[in-house]
Amino acid sequence: DLTSLDPAIAPSEDFYQYATGGWQVKNPLKPEYARFGSFDMLRDNNEARINELFSQMAHAKAEPGSINQKISDLYKMGLDSARLNAEGAAPIREAMDKILNMRDKQELTPVIAEMQMTVGSPFFGFGPEADLMDSKVNVLYVSQAGIGMGDRDYYLDEENEQLRTAYREYLSKLFALSGVAEAEIPAAVDAVMRIETEMARNMRSNVELRDMVRMYNPATTDEFVAAYDAIDWKDAFRTAGIEIDRLIVCQPEYMEAVNRLIKETPLADLRYYLAAQYASAAAPYLSDDFYAASFDFFGRVMSGKQEQKPRWKRAMSVPNGILSEAVGEMYVAKYFPAKDKERMLGLVKNLQTALGQHIAALDWMSDATKAKAQEKLAAFTVKIGYPDKWKDYSTLAIDPSKSYFENIVNASLWYTADNISKLGKPVDKDEWHMSPQTVNCLLYTSPS
Fold first, then answer.
1. Which tens digits make up the pLDDT trace of 350-392?
2. Could you tell me where the DSSP H helices lie in 283-431?
3. For residues 209 and 215, is the Cβ–Cβ distance under 8 A?
């Protein structure tokens, strides 16, 4: 599209302006975006389509327990600003009280385990993935996680001091909105910053995280439990429904540092850290004050956005994420019928045939290597449009009598348990890891 160019600028002078100048004029940056490109335009279109589906469902009476009920009730709860503002911090009060009233470090394990299953990844993250040395089987990985700003450099680099100041202000707002006494808040913020900075100091950099060989550190469960004894891992695994005899530790030196940190840090500081993690995870699903605090930091300061997304977009995104394949089934029924999928599968099959012919005609490849290449080509599982078997959400309950955030917590628990159930089982190569309505430039294939 030549109208997306700016021919008044020489490519050698400013290639970005030359290549995108016309696009920028035609598509001025909206205040709810930090960037805007062709993918964002497609996403805008999809959001409008999905919102139309949800709006129609919201006006119909759905059978309790049905997918329509789950989607429409989640959507309506996200739109109900009056209820959210009336509830304020009430949906998180019980959990926050439990965290802030711990009296002994022995109480840490059940609190951390519950948070890992529902709202976040305090201190570390864990989950099943294909074993890097045996890709047919799922294994548990444990890795560095748990810092509120997400990247260790935000805590360590001198140039990010302004960001750290803004993060402190965000934490202060969170504690105040959550009901922490005003006199306590400075000490609470200091405690969170000390703990997260120490965690960041022991994390690997983004460059170091590219070294996959160094990330693969298998251990027996007994070795793991003995090495990192600040947490009662056997109890934590029982809470999560994890039964394993081995796992992979991605950053052993980080886990050692966190183990020391939990042992040496006063319980009062650990409580503040966990409370901040909980409140921050909950903020997008609470009252306008909570959402504004979260947006001001993560949206405005960290991302450069000037304006919150309209409430309908925020409300729409939740059922679209939690019940993604159920929404996808409705989406493709209207916008991507089976005949279109068959047409695209035929196109990809033709590409595979052409590639096979190209391999056969190569003069620089040996017959043995050609045979291996053809074997690999034939082993591809092609995934186009949507899965042949949809995810079953029948056991995921959405209850409109409970708060919006309580439903989010229950959905997170359902998803975590669903993931954990894959441990020790063969990798499902037919499983999709994105919904059909997700805008993404990807031809997804996997070796069978």
1. 999 999 999 999 999 999 999 999 999 999 888 899 999 999 9
2. 288-294, 311-322, 324-335, 338-361, 367-378, 404-420
3. yes
